[in-house]
Amino acid sequence: MSDFPTDVKYTKEHEWARVEGDLVRVGVTRYAVDQLGDVTLVDLPSVGDSVTADERFGDIESVKTVSELFSPISGEIVEINPLVDEAPETVNEDPYGEGWFMLVRPSDPSQLDGLLDAAGYESFIKSIEG
Amino acid sequence: MTELKKIPLDALHREQNARMVPFAGYEMPVQYSGIKAEHAAVREAAGLFDVSHMGELFIEGPEAAQELDRLITNDLTTLTVGKALYACITREDGGILDDILVYRLEDERYLVICNAGNREKVAAHFREHIRASSFEDASDRYCLFALQGPKALSILSSLGAADLKDLAPFAIQPLTLRGADTLTARTGYTGEDGFEILVENEHAESVWEAIVAGGEGEGLLLAGLGARDTLRLEAALRLYGNDLSEETNPLEAGLGFAVKLNAGDFIGKDALVAIKEAGPARKLVGFEMIGRGIARNGYPILVDGNECGIVTSGSPSPTLNKNIGLCYLPSELAEIGRTIEIAIRNKKIDAKIVETPFYKRAR
After folding, report:
1. pLDDT cut 70: percent of chain A above it
2. Which of B138, B268, B293, B326 could disulfide-link to B90, CB 3.0 to 4.6 Å?
3. Among residues B145, B172, B16, B149, which one has the least CA distance to residue B85?
4. What ipTM was assigned to the predicted interfaces of this complex?
């Protein structure tokens, strides 16, 4: 079970990025949380920290395993979702909505052009699923 | 890389949406509906696990007891027919080759259930040392299911079986389930009441389906290795490959209850006598995280800034809603209540040594 909303762009590391005015909202994909299983802890940077495209910005832990998170965009964090700390299961329940991670003020919005669209990400998933 | 083996009910698990992962040379179900839900089902109702990767070794003959007793740390002479005994198989230096359950099926017939990853090693060890008795590695002929949880008794009894409430903990008996011969034991690896059911492959599917049907309306969930791991960790049951290895001995691993140094001779006894006299240099202890973080196998432990131990098992505890684990520490540091630091990637997070088991069921 995977869904691929068309209003976000995707990385091959299974993060998504959604443009909202001059900000970019970031989270992980349904495919990622389904692979991880029950999310129990998300380790995120703080508001005001900088993130860099393709570089690790945090970790996501499920009962079974831990995975690194890679930023789809460079910029400054303007908001962190408190819900993922208070109720990490939100990430499983609504990865593209309530389970978002951070809101970033991008330093170079054109970086998003290099990401996958929904169709591209879906075929990427099919290719790794074999 | 060698090809992964499939357990007999592989296709059935896939139909039930199992996520299959490689484990000990097999493709095994790690979860079906989700680890947290499966874990909760075992604590509150029941869970059914397929653990057919485990090894089944039969030893039979007039000298079976004597030959087997020489290979295990526990005292086999105390084991009566129809009962099970937990033990380690050790090397001459006391290192653990495997941890096992020995069942005495008949006067001169024993069943050893060993870990899947150690099966070939243990079978070779047994072939080397068991000379007068017959030995059979029957692992490929049998499926092993674990039905665990407070509702396990009522579910299994509902299949029209014998009066299972009289089957004592660690007892085993032949049991006919839906016309199939099984060996059913009141054992498990979850910290709950429950049963382990050994059945020949050809009858495995009908027995599995019967248990599933018996669990309908009782809250029974199919459960995978993921939940098995969190359940056993809450009960502080050791896992070979994590907490136990050839480089660890049963005394430092907290398995002294299964080491009988005053009984007969066994391989590794002299080394363990010496370790006991000197006191083990390190001990396996339980910890819970104070700071925000989940410790995992292999993470270093620091006391006063010095690296002095290693996490062997660690995960969230779904029942206790804490993050817990087991680690080896030098004996002089291994005291309840001590604060330790665990290096979780680039951070040092506080944890504290606590009593184990972390979870104990109400009786």
Report:
1. 98
2. B268
3. B172
4. 0.84
The average pLDDT across A84-99 equals 96
Interface-testing mutation among B23, B229, B294, with chain A (most A C-beta atoms within 10 A): B294
Phi, psi of B60 (to 5 degrees): -145, 140
Using the Cβ of B318 and the Cβ atoms of chain A, whether some distance falls under 8 Å is answered with yes
Residue among B35, B293, B345 minimizing CB distance to A63: B35
The residues near B25 (Cβ < 8 Å, ≥ 6 apart) are: B2, B4, B5, B53, B116, B117
Q: What average pLDDT does this structure show over B84-94?
A: 98
- Does the pLDDT value for residue A1 go beyond 80? no
**Domain A9-108+115-125, what fold?**
OB fold (Dihydrolipoamide Acetyltransferase, E2P) (2.40.50)
Closest to B36 (Cβ–Cβ): which among A41, A43, A63?
Answer: A63
Measure the CA–CA gap between B27 and A43, rounded to whole angstroms: 31
Chain A residues lying within 8 Å of B41, measured CB to CB = none
Domains of chain B by start residue, with CATH: 5-54+140-234 (3.30.1360.120), 281-363 (2.40.30.110)
